[in-house]
Amino acid sequence: MILLDTQPLWLSGALLIGLATLLAMAAPIFVRRRVPSERLRINNEVAGFTFATVGVLYAVLLAFAVIIVWEKFSEAEHAAAQEAGAAATLYRLANGIGEGPGEALRDSLTRYVRAAVTEDWPAMARSESSHAVTRALDTTYAALLTFTPGDGRGTALLDEALRQLDLLTEARRTRLILASGAVPGVLWFVLVGGAFVTVGFTLFFGTENLRVQAMMTGILSFLIFSGLLVIIAINHPFAGPVRVHPEALLEVLEDLGARAQP
Question: Which among 165, 205, 180, 184 is positioned nearest to 51, based on CA atoms?
Fold first, then answer.
């Protein structure tokens, strides 16, 4: 799965879906050459009821896994957007803080956003985090906490700035957690094993037209392994061919650079 996750989407699809479908279509021919069709037809009635149960159970499991990884992928996109929004809001709030703390906050926030793009995103592709980004975030907190409000307006400004900084921290923590993937190893074992069991169950049937049976087995294999490809492609939201890019933070960084110009 790790190998497929690092390949281009078309290559992963060819290796997973194409190879599995070809093998599934060849399997009935292989079995028919060794087991007469008359012996297989005896199993049709009993195997039909069992296959219906197996198919429904695996379809529910596969659909559940697809929904889970899609929700986690959407959550990763939302976390990146929330982090960018909090950074932009915090930078604007810094304009209302005194010259010293406000300037220090803007500088540290700019360094944090730049480090998040250049350090955190490559690290998340390896399911890791960047210590440089953590230090930049600590510096941002330290810069904000040097501000001492002198009136009610300053107190309200500090409260809102701390809230936005907390949102930024929470968003980063969320994307770091999601970077490791949503599907555990035991579930991968069940998904892959269930795929082979479900496709292999069709070999217990015997039809008069072998070509039709091979086509039906191939279609079933194509659908099952297409679902597995979707799970593989988006299981790690910040790695692989389908991933969350830091465009939102890049736009904020560009905005911060433009505002820093005199």
Answer: 205
Q: H or E segment at 43? A: none
For residue 237, give the 3-state DSSP assignment.
coil
pLDDT digits (tens, 9 = 90+) for 146-204: 888 778 888 898 899 999 999 999 999 999 999 988 888 888 899 999 999 999 888 87
Tell me the C-alpha distance between 197 and 11, whole Å: 25
* Contact (Cβ atoms closer than 8 angstroms) between residue 115 and residue 132: yes
Q: How far apart are CA 135 and CA 115, in angstroms?
A: 10
Among residues 210, 218, 235, the alpha carbon closest in space to that of 67 is found at: 235
At 242, the pLDDT band (50, 70, 90 cuts) reads confident
Percent of the chain with pLDDT over 90: 42
- How many Å apart are CA 63 and CA 140, to the nearest integer? 43
